[in-house]
Amino acid sequence: MTGGGRFAAKRNGRGEVGDPWSPAVEFGPGVDPRLQPGQGHAAPPSAGLPWIPQSGWTAAPSWRRTWVSRAILLGILVVQALLSLRLRNTAFEDEALYLYVGHLQLDQFLDGTPGSLGFTASFSGSPVLYPVLAATVESIFGLAGARALSLVFMLGATVLLYSLTRLLFNERAGLCAAAAFATTQSTLFLGNFATYDAAAIFLLALAAWIVVRTAPNSAILACLLAAPVAALAVAVKYAALMFLPTVVMLAALAVFPHRGWGGLVLRSILLPAVTAAILAGALALAGDNYLHAVRVTTTARAVGNADPLELLLDCLEWGGGFLALALLGTVSYARREGMGEVPGLRQAANRGRRWRLALGLLLCGTALLAPAYQMHLHTGVSLHKHVGYGLLFAAPMAGVGMSRLVGAHFRYPQLAILIWVTLLTLGMTQSQNRYHAWADSTRMIATLESQLKPGGRYLVEASSVPRYYLRAETTADQWASTYAMTYTDRTGRRLSGERAYRAAIGAAYFDVIVLDRTVTRELDDKLVQQLGTNGNYRLLAKLPYRNSHGSGYYQIWVKR
Amino acid sequence: MRTVSRLGTLRVPRPRARRVSRPLIGLLLVGLLGSFLGCSSRPIDQRSRGATDGGGSPEGQSGEALVPFDVRPLLKPPRKYLGAALDGAPESLAPVRDFAARIGKQPNLLEYYLEWGGGFDPRRVRNARAASALPVMVWEPFEPSIADIADGASDAYTRKFATAVRTANLPVVISFGHEMNGHWYPWGTEATDPADFVRAWRRIHDIFQDVGAANVIWVWSPNVINYLPDAPLEPFYPGDSYVDWIGVVGYYTDSGASTFPTLFGPTTAAVRRFTRKPILIAETAAEPGPRKRRDVADLFAGVAASPDVIGFIWFDHHKRADWRIGSDPSALAEFKRGAANGLFGFDVKQI
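Above: the input entities. Below: the structure tokens describing the complete assembly.
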């Protein structure tokens, strides 16, 4: 408490005004000159008069505070990891597709085997980045390993989020932001899902962290390190392009309190310019296929037929509470800046109300980007994952909201606990619900495996799943799915769509057909009717399955 | 509590607060963490059943076998089926062992009769499998009427039966309404319309498909048409998508045809006009008498010489006449000679 000791503040040796730990209050005349302004770290008292410490503790950084904080963060990461790892199911179509393509690309790199099938023009991210990395991990550790890679990315994103929130606000807000983000449905889901979403989120978090970390006193070049990271995020998943403006505006806002308008303008011009240059260069090198892919999957995506109101309700279910907390944080932060309880702590210059409001609205508004875009497109595909990207950016404000709810000196910790437990419960149930949106395919794969034969042709509704699981015994051209097919009949006519399937079944083209009425329900019903009366095929099995949407059957037909 | 002020150290009593002990907090945290670990995300039925792999047939969800049985290799076998309808089999395997010892070969089709309404006994199917044979269930719809079955009167029974067949996950040969072109059964020409018969057959078949019992080999078994000229076969035929084998029922009798081509020829010719499915002599035997030995030899020769006949089933019962092979030593010796041909009999488990 008095003098030096382990917990003494490290100060600049003079204890003068300008030292952030010195109070703004000065003692007036008539007071014993031995009483020094500061926190009781003055020279030891002379005999007789005891001296008064300004406050009973110090807000200065100390190793104890750092390690307690890190321990809490570690606890948050452990909880996130456990909640992600408890989700269990066989591979989803997208996971199977990316891992399979990754293996094809690996084979092409290593053996020169042509990585056929032309995925480049239809993928929503580069097929040579994440898929190759995931396939490498998968060939050593299996599907669980590829999913663990995603967990590492999501844990990294949580840590980066904690760090950037701490840099923007304070320690407590950082921990609250990490705790809130770690329990959302999308975080838990993506932490055990082998697609490039986790990698893209990690890279976006890294870019955001770089621009915030380099805001106070680093050269512009340090800030521009975020440009290749952001470009890599876009290369990994093209939809990350939607969040680049946020990163740029965050860079501009973060630098404003330290470098003023000059820094803001410089960064808001240079950062997007460099990023765009990198992306343009990469596109030019990569070729037209990528441009086509970006257009088809992201910028000019085909319109679906989902009800926008339903999409909105789904978004509210997955991120509504989080966004409400973030908005609360924005309002609270805009009204009052002070983030700590230390009496008289000096305010940082240039963090005016308009700046605070701009920061809050930027971060909260980003959470609305993905839902708004998908509602505009009337498509709910992968919405539950894309919501997570926006929540990453809204998380700092949610952290502020939570710590403001707690109040000074931990006045109302129960409010934060209530909110966190609510978010946790919602996250747990929703992530489990999403993780069982597809059925366990173990029996179907085992049955298919028993029917494999050299040169066999297999029509499976979601063919990417068995194609991945049975990749050791089959080649890519043996598989077809009910999503799309072209078939040339005996007379040489090229057919597509339903007519192609009917002609193929009539000619007994496929050896095994598996239909499950999940994606192409109407087509399945028509094909089953044809199979029943066709005489070329015989029902082998009807395997029941169950998923979040209900139950159904895998109907497996084999050639007589 | 001690407070240091300019007046010196002061002792101020403070209200005693109830403090939760640290071990209790620790226990709470451990419990919370443990509940995360214990919270599995497997679907409910898997969790409660604790399905495990390993041993015998690996179990998947809902206690059923992981891989369903594929009957296709049995439909066009590499050699001829040699079957028998034996008293007491396949509930018990003793008659099968007896018969096998007598004829010197293991029969691989075991025929038995079940009245419509009777339950499915998986033991029979398992016994047949253990004896390296297929069970052939002759399903006799004495009641309700075929028209009622076609209209759905027995749907619940059929569904339950089919579910049991599926769960057994072993091949079962089913012959529904055999000798439907004769006039001696309620499902025969006296009381049943061919169209109703076809409707009933298709309805039963569709229920089996719906339930997923695809481990059934469907046998459509008309009687030989030699003395039934007024009952054309085709109106009774359900269609190639509903039938796997054509099972012809015909006996060598003193007054009737005495060679394979004359006994079975007209029927197979008639059948070949509307289907190319494999033919099984579903029920046959020779009338006791001096001709029996020659009939047995003729049967073996006829089946061996017909490439699209996949085998025969010997009716080894004493019913109206003593059809049993054991009752005539010379016929038995002839049977033994015929069965010794490597073309007849094989282990169905090896296919």
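Note for the figure: Strands of chain A lie at 458-460, 479-480, 486-488, 494-496, 512-515, 537-547, 550-559.
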